[in-house]
Amino acid sequence: MLRLEGVSRRFGDRQVLTDVGFDVHRGRLTGFVGGNGAGKTTTMRIVLGVLAADAGSVTLDGTPLDAARRRRFGYMPEERGLYPKMKVAEQLTYLARLHGWSKEAAARRTADLLERLGLAERAGDAVEQLSLGNQQRAQIAAALVHGPEVLVLDEPFSGLDPLAVDVVLAVLAETAAGGVPVLFSSHQLDLVERLCDDMVIIAGGRISAAGGRTELRDRFGTRRHEIVAGSDVGWLRGVPGVRVVEFSGGSALFEADDEAVVQGVLRTALEHGPVTTFAPVVPTLGEIFREVVAGPQGGPADDGAAGAADGGRPPGAAADPGAVTVPGATSRTTPTERLQEVRR
To answer: Which helix (H) or strand (E) holds 115?
Structure first.
């Protein structure tokens, strides 16, 4: 298990990370989400040893990380870092050999990854000849080619079309199923909800929430219920302990903190006539994210300070992809179903 405890970092007079701590478990996909400048990239760079923390620790299975252990990590930065004029397969084989793979084993691993990522036909092309989406897939292959012990991906889905997203999701799910802790950042919460087992929300350089999807829904979900009846449910407004959120004739969305009140509503509705729907409303990760980042610690930490400390973005690198995308509708699959879902 990868564990961060009490990690803090300052750039000049700006505090970028404060007491950051969370776990990335083996065999699980952990989504790392936050607004622009929340501290995601700085945290990942500290995990990889690109930046040093001012305080705190990063351990793997209880052992502090050193340079040798980190060399067994796989990392995909937000900015593409492959040699543009080098052929895709040649470059991946070269990277695997840098990690100690034999020439034959590296070539087999490269061929397998390119096939799984849908790049087999482009193996002999230079990276600069690929579309931006295919360059992104090649970058992901580079993070995976040496069989990493831990996988850290910064915005891996940026620039991918829906079909490419499905291909990458399947590869990441298979990687996690092999016992690898996978940490990835994304602004696309529909993808995080679809893929991740656990989620970490960072806001203002502090961890605002962390845990499994069901745990977070239970912790931050309101006591909302939906009712659809065969008659007008306007009487709901007069029920003590009930707050009507939405109302439209025979249907309503209401909140109630007391389960006894909820059951009382159902009994009253049945006395008025048939009830076709009566169910709790489970919050999406997008709704949880909105609630968490709207809190007192939701201000920006200016993660861009990390780029300035490192010399900034390279010429031509993509800018921060923008605000978090909150989906209108999301998948309800369980973690055990997710791999089959992304393969379909």
So the answer is: helix 103-116
Task: Please state the domain extents for the chain.
Answer: 2-72+149-217+286-343, 223-280
Q: What is the pTM of this model?
A: 0.76
Dist CA 301 CA 305 (whole Å):
9
CA angle 218, 219, 223 (to 5 degrees): 65
Rounded to whole angstroms, how far apart are CA atoms 31 and 199?
Answer: 5
CATH class of 223-280: alpha beta
What count of residues does the chain have? Answer: 344
Beta strands in 48-119 (DSSP E): 55-60, 63-64, 73-76
Instruction: Specify the CATH architecture of the domain 2-72+149-217+286-343.
Output: 3-Layer(aba) Sandwich (3.40)
Q: Are 143 and 151 in contact (CB under 8 A)?
A: yes
Residue 344, burial from CB neighbour count under 10 angstroms (0-12, 13-18, 19+): exposed
Contacts 24+ apart (CB under 8 A), 87-91: 87/123, 87/124, 87/125, 87/126, 87/127, 88/114, 88/119, 88/122, 88/123, 88/124, 88/125, 88/126, 88/127, 88/130, 88/138, 88/141, 89/114, 89/123, 89/124, 91/127, 91/138, 91/142
DSSP-derived secondary structure for 152-182: EEESTTTT--HHHHHHHHHHHHHHHHTT--E
Question: How far, in Å, CA of 262 to CA of 254, rounded?
Answer: 9
pLDDT digits (tens, 9 = 90+) for 103-151: 999 999 999 999 999 999 999 999 999 999 999 999 999 999 999 999 9
Percent of the chain with pLDDT over 90: 65
Q: What distance in Å separates the CA atoms of residue 130 and residue 314, rounded to the nearest whole number?
A: 19
Q: Which helix (H) or strand (E) holds 139?
A: helix 132-144
